[in-house]
Automatic annotation (TrEMBL):
Its EC number is 2.7.13.3. This is histidine kinase. Residues 404-458 form the PAS domain. Pfam families: GAF_2, HisKA, PAS, PAS_4. It catalyses: ATP + protein L-histidine = ADP + protein N-phospho-L-histidine. Gene3D superfamilies: 1.10.287.130, 3.30.450.40, PAS domain.
Amino acid sequence: MNAAAGRAGLRVVDDPDDAALALVDLTAPGCGPAVVELLTSLNGPHLTLIALVSPDPRGFAAVDTLRPTDILTHQGLAHELTWRLQRAAERHREREEQARSQTDLALLLELTADYAESSDVEALLHGVTRRLAEQLDIARATLVMLGGGADEGIIVAASDDPGLKNLRIDLARYPEIREVVRTGKPVVMQEAATHPLLGDLERRAVAARGIHAIAALPLPIRGEVRGVLLLRAAGRRRTFSTREIDFLTTVAHATAVALRSASVLQSVQTARLAAEEKAASFKPYQLFFAHVSEGVAILDDKAGVLSLNPSGAQMLDTPANEARGKHLNQITQPLDEGVLMELVTSASRGEARSGVDVVVRTPAGRCLTLSMSAAPLRDEDAATILSFRDVTHARKLEDELRNTKDFLERLIDSSVDAIIAADLKGRIILFNKGAEAMCGYSAAEAQEKLTVLQLYPPGVAQRVMAQIRSPELGGRGRLSLIRQELVHRSGERVPVNMTASIVYEGGRESFSVGIFTDLRDRVQLERKLSDVETRLEESEKSAVIVALAGTAAHELNQPLTSVMGYAELLKRKLKEDDFAWRPVDIIYREAERMAEIVRKIGKITRYETKSYVGAQQILDLDKATSHEE
């Protein structure tokens, strides 16, 4: 397969999302689920399929639902595969080209219709840049109109920021725009970070932002370049194709035609002039800020309130007409006046500040946390524009989350059990104090130098993960209590009880966490208890033997005494040459020996055995009574 693809000028990829063609082997046993997964993947509808089937009616019937571009059998595979791959690739490219052309045409028709119907110039121009960025999957599309000076430009719309408009830029930093203005032709830089048109400073800036390619298209109005459509490709998008440049040139000309109409051109020029001139009164500010959801206040150079928009008045529980003329501190009553006045003073010096939290108290008694931003506003009467939004709930939530996080961290660290978490590659991401004590590593060492495999004996970590994923030991993703061993830094095997689980995010495994209880003290205690039980058992045996020995000695002494007495009487009545004397003497001596044995039995105080016949054990009377002698 790889050789045939290489001969066809194709490359085999591992990820279906990167593929254009797919060769599906329907002769492979159990191929159905794999084919379904391929066709239902994100890239599945766009794949061109070639099916390998068995040369019989059933094999060809199997492809009815797939509708592949081409069909192969094993009989012709060796000779036909390269040729068929080439033809399929050509058809796929033709189909993709047709689809892109249709998409481009549809977008161009939409833009043309919008140019003809829309009266909102700012929304229209932003919509153009936004749809171009989405269509081409690029980082940013920008419309730049030329300013009054040769080195001055004004950004009137940007795809990634609907609020960005009338922003002045220095064209000395944009050599691609200057080149378009000079030549009146498109400029395309496919390798922007190394393109000779850019200087060292611009190349470094492009590389830092991850920009791969730049395209700049002229907007000619009445024979003069009055603006530039600027596009930047980053991320997955690395270049602009010739077809895309042609399409963008058409869009740029369509935009220029729309701007050529007197009403639209006048609107753009008016917006540009408005950006160049300072406001002569507060009415434009009031009209603009009246519909802003954030609070906005215009302050004079002494921090007196000149204007307060409706959102700000509602937020501060102060009517706008009553706030006018009052000092900012008077209507906000900040708990820390120094923070607020430092913010306003910085703005009056020309320094814009943003995101400063100020706690205020309203006349209605509400205590709010406001995130404030201040910027200089050069006007006859106004010195500063102050915007603010209520972040009381957000800051309270952040504090609660921070407290919860701190609590959980303290709880985990205070646990005597070891708690260890690792990502799916085995890298340790959590190693609490209990784990440090149990394994002998610091948390920093464990996270920087170890993997979870090194904390288990060889092969155990893989077995534990298999048990966690198994539904048999607590359910999928959970492991019930089991006995296991960890490896201490010194090499000592540490017996533990452990439970573990896999944490899922969006249905996918994210990381695993285990809780380990040190059993070394318990194992030592169990060993001591076992020794005590053994000694107790031996003691009980000894007690039984001693009691039995005493009873046997007492019961045997009486009959033995009688036997010995009668045997002695018989010996006295008989002479040594009498035939009965010897048997009686043997009876007497054996009775004496039995008496000695009974005496030893009576002295037994412990349980001592010796081997007898085979594996049989009998009581050793000498050792059982030796301590008495």
